[in-house]
Amino acid sequence: LLGQLEKKDEELKNLQEDFQKAKEKVQNLGLIRENLSKELQSKLDNNITIDEKTGSISLPAEVLFDKDSYMLKNEAKASLRKILSEYFDAILEDPK
Q: Which one of 40, 58, 61, 67 is at 20 to 30 Å from 73 when CA atoms are compared?
């Protein structure tokens, strides 16, 4: 009975260690995402915002569309290509 209890204690200790390691990895991923968002924000135009938690990109409507129009401006298309190219390059090439 004592041997079984010691075995269970050892299993519990191992599970707690595994949990702690997983928790640290999740925290590190959050920091990496925040740092990546800040780095991207510094590279992109000032009128573009990047949410540090989700990585989503926001642009003002007037940058993309003319007033009372649903069609993208031609200059917005070129700008979006550049922005998205830099965005995906940073995400996919991040060594962390």
A: 40
